[in-house]
Design brief:
Keywords: 4Fe-4S, Iron, Iron-sulfur, Metal-binding. This is YfhL family 4Fe-4S dicluster ferredoxin. Pfam families: Fer4_7 (PF12838). By secondary structure, the protein is an alpha+beta fold. The chain has one domain: Alpha-Beta Plaits (2-Layer Sandwich). Helices cover 22% and strands 14% of the residues. A hairpin with a 4-residue loop joins strand 2 and strand 3. It is globular.
């Protein structure tokens, strides 16, 4: 599933540059993750880099957008083909 940033976000700016798919951007109040671009770093890293660097642990899997590892890999491949 793609990831989401919760209201606990402190806008520290560390997650955005870590995202290899440029899925993280500043929303109206806090950072947000575009589920169409988020692959949980599948294809790039073993673990989601935004979750690794977040100092307040406000990035979680979004239960509203479940995706399997195969689906995340397919999304990664589609994103790479579009570059």
């Amino acid at each position: 599933m793609s990831l989401e940033i919760t209201d606990e976000c402190i806008n520290c700016d560390v997650c955005e540059p870590e995202c290899p798919n440029e899925a993280i951007s500043m929303g109206p109040e806090i950072y947000v993750i575009d589920p169409n671009l988020c692959t949980e770093c599948v294809g790039h890293f073993d673990t989601p880099q935004c979750m690794e660097v977040c100092p307040v642990e406000c990035i979680n899997k979004d239960p509203a957008k479940p995706e399997t590892q195969d689906e995340l890999m397919a999304k990664y491949e589609k994103l790479q083909a579009g570059k």
